């Protein structure tokens, strides 16, 4: 497990606690916003952990909620201070999906379905570079390199010698047949995918075309789970201009059930390795 303070997770925990205090008080977010002369959207963003929260915000909210125990206030203030620290990803500059990286860094397990590409945590550097270059044709080379380096840094969680991320990936056949970077790049990528699938904490399954329609037909998503019971699971859906994070228990349950159906319809581990190997042979000709 990461030993450093993760600001993203701290914000989530703090937001959940502030929401709990508001609900105990029996107040709506609108009522709290009116008391503090701020927008309702600010209160919502503070509670869902998407916005950095200051110690002053915590103090003001605790005042509205009439929190009498100074130890509770001090604890929340410390969480606010921790949440404003920078994670390792900030060293790379502005990263559009930094919230997701923060969650992934602290996650215990990740279940991902990818319909178009090899999952980022299992990509080779050459594949990632070709993929990002194709996806962002107007991005300067420096931006491409930054994104590739961030992706490589994220992979440390998979390859960590202690407490690695438990990864389960269901990949559509189209991701294996899409020629990204040329035949040699694809060959190396598929060989790498097979090798990574042999790690005890990594499971890879392919969903072949012949399975037809399936629960993941609407697109990519990932389910992150955390070691601390206080941190609820999150469903992450990547978008072009914005991302979606679902944390309600019903939403997470629905996507989890969908994922179970995907795993049941996909090839098993041994069949998957053989299937990937057969496709890889096509890139040697």
UniProtKB/TrEMBL annotation:
Molecular-function annotations in GO: DNA binding
Residue intervals of the HTH cro/C1-type domain: 18-71
CDD domains per record: HTH_XRE
SMART domains: HTH_XRE
Lineage top rank: taxon: Bacteria
Region forming the signal peptide: none
Name of a matching Pfam family: DUF5753
UniProt protein name: Helix-turn-helix domain protein
């Amino acid at each position: 497990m990461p030993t450093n303070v993760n600001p993203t997770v701290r914000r989530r925990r703090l937001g959940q606690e502030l929401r709990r205090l508001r609900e105990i008080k029996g107040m709506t977010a609108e009522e709290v916003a009116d008391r503090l002369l701020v927008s309702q959207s600010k209160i919502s963003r503070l509670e869902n952990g998407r916005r950095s929260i200051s110690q002053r915000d915590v103090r003001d909210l605790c005042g509205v909620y009439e929190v009498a125990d100074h130890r509770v206030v001090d604890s929340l203030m410390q969480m606010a201070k921790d949440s404003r620290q920078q994670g390792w990803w900030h060293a790379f500059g502005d990263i559009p999906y930094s919230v997701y990286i923060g969650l992934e860094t602290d996650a215990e397990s990740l279940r991902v379905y990818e319909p178009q590409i090899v999952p980022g945590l299992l990509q080779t550097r050459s594949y990632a570079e070709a993929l990002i270059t194709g996806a962002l044709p107007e991005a300067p080379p420096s931006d491409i390199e930054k994104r590739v380096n961030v992706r490589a840094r994220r992979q440390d969680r998979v390859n960590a010698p202690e407490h690695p991320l438990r990864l389960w990936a269901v990949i559509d056949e189209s991701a294996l047949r899409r020629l990204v970077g040329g035949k040699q790049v694809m060959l190396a990528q598929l060989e790498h995918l097979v090798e990574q699938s042999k790690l005890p904490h990594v499971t890879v399954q392919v969903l072949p075309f012949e399975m037809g329609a399936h629960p993941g037909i609407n697109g990519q998503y990932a389910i992150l789970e955390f070691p601390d019971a206080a941190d609820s699971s999150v469903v992450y859906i990547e978008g072009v201009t914005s991302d979606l994070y679902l944390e309600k228990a019903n939403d997470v349950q629905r996507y989890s059930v969908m994922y179970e159906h995907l795993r049941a319809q996909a090839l098993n581990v041994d069949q998957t390795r053989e299937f990937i190997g057969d496709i890889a042979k096509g890139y040697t000709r």
